Amino acid sequence: MKRVLMRYILIVVAVLLTQGSVWGKSKKHDDDKSKDAKQENNDNKKNDKKHDETPSKTAGGNHFIAGQCTWFVAEKVKENWGIWIPWSGNAGTWYDHAKDAKFKVGSKPAKSSIIVFKPIPGKSPERGGVGHVAWVKNVKGDQVSIEEMNFEKQNERSVRMVSAHDDLIKGYIYEK
């Protein structure tokens, strides 16, 4: 009888250990983590005008992936417009998200605006398959000077000139 009881106890302990509830991996714990992550994500999406410091890669506010073009432009927007980008998504979706968020959008380049490039069908995400965004530094005639990240080299900032009439340009997002 003792052996049967001992085996039963061992089986129960083994089941509990494999389910994770003994070591804090219960469903309730996962639900709490999920709620915390959702709250943090919501907090990061708010435009916090009181937040004056430039965020680090891990600071709240900029919810885009560090080193990507979207992250870089979100930093430029905070620095120049004093707000965080309120939407998320790949670069190619920014123009429509900006329209939905009641930002001014258009087809004319302007200094201190966001240039949005269309996604290139058949290309990998690293080569423009999800679009691209950059910060407009200056405009001279039909030449647009842009500052960007993750275009020439992975995770690196670069500056280049583009034609205002480039077919890959979806449009521009202007300060509210």
UniProtKB/TrEMBL annotation:
Q: What is this protein called?
A: CHAP domain-containing protein
- Read off the PROSITE patterns from this record: CHAP
Recorded hits in InterPro entries, A to Z, give: CHAP_dom, Papain-like_cys_pep_sf
Matching entries from SUPFAM superfamilies are given as:
Cysteine proteinases (SSF54001)
Species whose genome carries this gene: Geomesophilobacter sediminis
Q: Which domain of life is it from?
A: Bacteria
**Pfam (any one):** CHAP
Region span, Disordered: 24-61
Query: What residue spans carry the Basic and acidic residues bias annotation?
Result: 28-55
Give start and end of each Peptidase C51 domain.
Answer: 44-174
Q: What Gene3D superfamilies does this protein map onto?
A: endopeptidase domain like (from Nostoc punctiforme)
